[in-house]
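Let's do one together. I've listed all components of the complex below, 708 residues spread over two lines.
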Amino acid sequence: MSALLTGWTGAVVFSVAVLAVAMTCVAYMTWLERKIAARMQNRIGPYEVGFPHGWLQPIADVTKLLIKEDITPRAADSLLFNLGPILVVVPALVGFAFIPVGRGLAIVDHAYSFLFFTAFASLTLLGVFAAGWSSNNKYALLSALRMVAMAASYEVPMILSLLIPALLSGSFQLTAVVEAQRGLWFIAYPVVGQVAFGVFLLCALAEGNKSPLDILDAESELVAAYNVEYSRIKFALFYAGEYAHTLAICSLAATVFLGGYLGPAFLPGVVWLMLKCVILFVLILWIRWSLMRMRIDQAIRINWMFLLPAALANLLIAASWVVRK
Amino acid sequence: MSGGPIEVVERDFGELALNMGPQHPSTHGVLRLVLHLSGETVIKAIPVIGYLHRGVEKLSEHLAYDQLAPVYERDDYLAPTANSNAYVLAVERLGAIDVPRRAKWLRAFVSEWQRVASHLVWLGTLGLDLGGALGGGTTLYMYCFREREKILDFLEELTGTRYHTNFNLIGGARYDLDKTSAAKSDALAASVEAALPELWAMSGSNPIFQERTRNVGVISKDLAQGVGITGPTLRASGIAYDVRKAAPYDAYGELNFDIVTRTAGDAEARFQVRMDELAVSLKLVKQIVAGLPSGPIFTRKPLKNPKATKLPKGEIYAAVESPRGELGFHIVSDGTAKPYRLKINAPSFKNLQIVPHILPGGLVADVVAILGSLDPVLGDVDR
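Okay, and this is what the predicted structure of the assembly comes out as:
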């Protein structure tokens, strides 16, 4: 196996494999979300397309989107308009290159892979802004403006909370961060771990546009927000990008807080990682489908008054603890 | 805001005119709001109505009195019987037509059930406004509709129709309540009552919900009286006006219930008033089933020709308390079988007048919260 994974051919094979798994996961995350939301809401969810329980629904959805009309509004900035969905999807998928799926096993096992991941994860917001701005639609514009305010706020505590695992493991290399959790997962470190995880989860909700912090695409106010003018494959790309981003964030959280691929040996590491991702995803869904949306000023106030001080204090405590040790 | 085209072009640099509706997920049908925004703050709001105008009042002049009641059930489509109830009251008062006591109680019975159903739709859609279709809002919405579905099933069993029950006849009621249905009503009331704590937990007890509604869209007592709003929206501003108490009609003079009021006048107060009214209405239906008088439900001679009913010359106004407030019918009769002129005093229309007064100063997110808390039904606004 290791022979297969060396050199250019190895990288390509590995990338294609990860991409295929990730895209399949993304497709079936939509199905899982619809099923779980339905169960929470006294419904059945997708049922008719594919037996049992509508398992072909994601494929039907994609097919439907592909045969729709592709529209670029005349008044839109067509270059940015068409670039937007790509800017959303690609960085989210690139993030998977840094996630270790086994001991020393990541497409890019760079010494600063942790930083690269967060940088790429934040890049999706650029695509959102490009889409919102170039659509030349007032709702999309409001959404783009909200995105700037939200990103400027929530990126800060997110990065601060992600510094905790880096501090505790003493490395920015994700494989090393996972290996440092062999004794104890970082989420289990008293107070420090849980606060960091909680802050990260809230920021992930905001970055991933999930209720109660789905301020960007608050569709009851801004209709469909930044993707209001999009149709066909571009809309599908936004949809895929959103879920890919969520999956990337889940896998990062699983990697840096929940021990990544670590787990009892009766299952391979990849399976443990995916299980942890699913658990985190379901947790996000649980929050998403039970809470109302915050108003933008409330969301931003919560960030500056509560999340940021908590993340800062947490970082100080963790740092002083690491130094004393 | 009538006359002339509505300005949607920004005049000043830095001011964004946002056209919200008539196709928008949170405008409760086809309301159009022209919002002038500075950043996300609303500085001016102009409601534009008329997208659901069906000419019901004009149509009334061409139909006979006995043909009209079902037409009005399409006005306020969330509480159909309230409309026909107000209409038949007006006709009965002008024509001095006798209504059997049992029929009066049955009218109140169906009205109260529809009030519960209507308030459940309001709560669900308020959830959608605050939580969105991809969030907790839908969950609340589904819970509300789960309860409402049971009520519609019950009404279907009672009247043959889930929705536009056509229950009120001039001079009586169309369907009777038998023992099995009465028992079912009691069981249903108990089951909806049991679901109320869950609905509260999803909405009013949730800190995010409270933050979104508290001190949002405050209507002071003076403003409420000045604009002339009505119903739960008025009662949330501290004015205990309820047609069921102020001018009792049908069985309400004999029933025992309280008017729910709040003094804060914000969206949360309006929410609380409606939530408490749900409980009051559920108590009322139980009370009606327990004390239902026996006797006939219709004593007029069966009509072969609908145009046989003629009213004496004169004018009449009669009102009921619909789930949205005072719903009145003003009929001018010239002594023929058709109204000479008929005017509907619609509560949603009156409540919507408050919109330009309370939206400015809030954010775009508050617009949907305030609209949701006003509970307008556009069929009732435009008629």
